[in-house]
Amino acid sequence: MSAMKYDIFFSICQTEVDGYLPSEKTMWKNFFDQVQWADQLGYETAWVAETHLSCQTQKENPGAVIPNFKGEIGLNTDILQLAHLIFNQTKKLNVGSAIRNILCNGGPLAHAEAVKTFLSLHGMRENESRLLELGFAAGRFPFSYHAYGIKPRDLVEEAAWEVVKNKVFQEATLVMLKTLRGDRFASHEIGPLYLRPEDFRTSESWEKVYKLAKEDRRRWDGDKILHLPYFVFEKVGVIPFEAPLELLRLTIGSHDPETQSMANTILPTGVFNLSITPGHIIEETHQRMNQVFHASGGAWTRAHMPRTALIFVDATKGLSPEQQSARAREQAKKAWHHYWLAMEKTLDPKKIESAVENSIAGHPEEVAQAIKNKYHPEDRLMLWFDFNNHDNEAIKASMQVFMEQVKPRIEELNR
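The structure corresponding to this sequence follows.
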């Protein structure tokens, strides 16, 4: 039986907390201090959020995605540049992207080329075995890929954009993974992707799109609609061809079973899942991935599905467990208060209380028991300590309390 794995997640979210908005330089200084501390404490992988284009600037346009948010949702725009610095400053940590948008910044060919170049340089280190954990997805905010031409091109795509967007991501996934594998091919060799009735939430939505598509000879194909590729190219090969793929581990940020399976026809690809995902979905995903996981990756394990866990732990000396628990829950409530205020400019006490309940907050024993109750003993957790918190020393203290007091207790409980 495998043991639970403990990774750490860094948001590097530059937002105002209690009237304090750190400079970018301060944010980076704190991040590197925390990532070195994570390495010393024994966390396995440092996952870093990735964001593209300024949220603040986007607010100046119609249809602002987070109009009330002050600051930037994240400062890291390129895990590959950041990973070189992290590897230089640490000894054991793997580095992961949570999550890299492969639709922006040139699309899947550009990302494959950048990753292979990174791996080639990273592999030059003597006896290097630390992994680049490439989490990839379509991006959280549409404006980050709209700027690169990924947006509806006609009435059919406008009417079916939620479905088309997933097809674009499937297309990008196939292109990137095939080129990472070393294939030399042209875009037409990928094979066609289709929009089908089961892709749509309602039959009415499908009928509307189907009617539009019948008027376009390029698209109509009987009982389904042809997806017109966004990435069109003659035969290419992405260099360097000798990049050490054994230093790369892939994880896809998609809840769509078809997309998860499609990725695994090419290379072993794990799956991200949030801590709030219902338990039955988690187990169904494990069962399905056990069947479709690419054979070259060995057997599917629960460690192939990293899961976020928002942690608020208090072990203040001189306080009773009850007092420590109250402090931790108050910290969680305060963090969520700031978050919802920033995101929606309104405060719903029920929403805050629900968010606190979905977090893990308390004294060390309480946190250990909560994790024991919520997660499988072989799960892999991405522990999040910097949520709406710019107190560098407090974050580092929580990281230490978890590894020195919570982790041993979880292991005892799981035995």
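The longest strand covers residues 94-101.
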